[in-house]
Design goal:
TIM Barrel, 26% helix
Length: 386
């Protein structure tokens, strides 16, 4: 819908607070404010459905694929569009399509595709996340070891030149293969640097944070753990007041008790936010797919290599919200923040993840049982179950 429209809700979450019996006022794709249902301003057309719950669209900073498309296999604008559309079915309105460790020519194709997607204003496309190839071999997870390598001057030049051409820029790197000076250069160019797939010590992680790294990729997974004498990346991240932590809260990648401990620890400005680490099967019935020439099997809520190594997650953001709300006994406000407000703040997308005046009109209409009715991006319906 275009023009000025009021979307009525019995309950609305604006990203921080709940409001009862209000309407979200949308004008030309942006939030114009809130109004009581009995006092909608003249000039606003009323949307024909009063939803039980209206919430900000979800923001996912780690999405490898969806709808049958995997960015590594098809580094194109069309694949990005497929990935964004597939995840919108589950309420995600802002996506960082993510490239897993691959060859330089694939990286370059993804950067070009991201720039094209930005020019085309692909709905839901927020930017890119390069997860690798400058990682630690000892913590490679499902990444192809042959492609893992140190960052050199040519790599740094490509990344600094590309920054700003495709929207928000995020890269996961490891101290084993990226220097502090390279981190500083990436941050200065506009990249959000995240520590991940590393076996480094806590002191190394802290040095990275001081150099400008502001995030940790999928907390607990593929990183040095917290021990009694060496806190590792986990300890460094949990004791930082400013570093943001992505978390795959599917109760497969991380035990619920470990998640509860982390959530108690992270109470500063840098919080924990949800990521799905979704792969190509999201939104499909596929039972297997190929990653780096290897078959990934989809079984019992898991995506694994033949040897059992986890290879992404078989979960969408809406399911993660429900699971965390139920299994972790987190309030609805908290899980919604972890799916929208916190990731938008972590990546620096000021107009995403909330419904304050001036924000992009990205929102989800839901039932009282958290069932999804429709997803809206920029005031336009991009998915509806009716």
């Amino acid at each position: 819908m275009t023009g000025s429209v009021a979307y009525s809700a019995k309950r609305l979450f604006d990203g921080e607070h709940f409001h009862d019996d209000v309407a979200l006022l949308v004008r030309n794709g942006s939030v114009a404010g809130l109004a009581s249902l009995s006092d909608v301003p003249d000039g606003y057309a009323l949307h024909d459905h009063v939803s039980d719950l209206l919430v900000p669209g979800f923001v996912d900073l780690q999405v490898n694929g969806g709808g049958g498309a995997l960015l590594n296999d098809t580094p194109t604008k069309d694949a990005i569009e497929t990935i964004c559309s597939a995840n919108a079915r589950f309420g995600t309105t802002s996506v960082l399509p993510t490239l897993i460790t691959d060859a330089p020519e694939v990286r370059d194709a993804v950067l070009a595709a991201g720039a094209e997607a930005k020019r085309a204003k692909v709905p839901g496309f927020l930017g890119l996340h390069l997860e690798g190839p400058h990682l630690s071999r000892s913590r490679k997870g499902a990444h192809v070891e042959d492609f893992i390598r140190p960052m050199d001057d040519a790599d740094l030049a490509v990344l600094t030149k590309a920054a700003g051409t495709f929207g928000q820029a995020m890269t996961t790197v490891a101290p084993e293969n990226v220097t502090l000076d390279q981190v500083k250069a990436l941050v200065a160019a506009g990249w959000k640097v995240s520590v991940g797939h590393t076996d480094c010590k806590a002191a190394d992680a802290k040095a990275y944070f001081e150099a400008g790294a502001s995030m940790v990729t999928h907390l607990f997974n593929a990183m040095s753990q917290m021990g009694n004498r060496e806190p590792g990346v986990v300890g460094a991240a949990l004791t930082s007041d400013t570093v943001w932590c992505g978390l795959i809260a599917d109760c497969v990648h991380v035990d619920p008790l470990s998640m509860a401990i982390a959530l108690r620890a992270k109470q500063g400005a840098g919080r924990i936010f949800f990521v799905t680490d979704a792969m190509s099967p999201t939104g499909t019935d596929a039972t297997e797919f190929i990653l780096g020439g290897r078959t990934i099997y989809r079984r019992d809520g898991r995506l694994t290599l033949a040897d059992g190594t986890l290879a992404g997650a078989d979960i969408d953001m809406l399911s993660m919200i429900k699971l965390a709300h139920e299994r972790l006994s987190l309030s609805l406000a908290d899980v919604l923040k972890m799916a929208s407000l916190y990731p938008s703040q972590a990546i620096g997308a000021a107009n995403k993840g909330h419904l304050r005046t001036g924000a992009d009109a990205d929102f989800v209409l839901m039932g009282a049982d958290l069932s999804l009715h429709s997803t809206w991006i920029g005031g336009q319906c991009c998915f509806s179950r009716t």
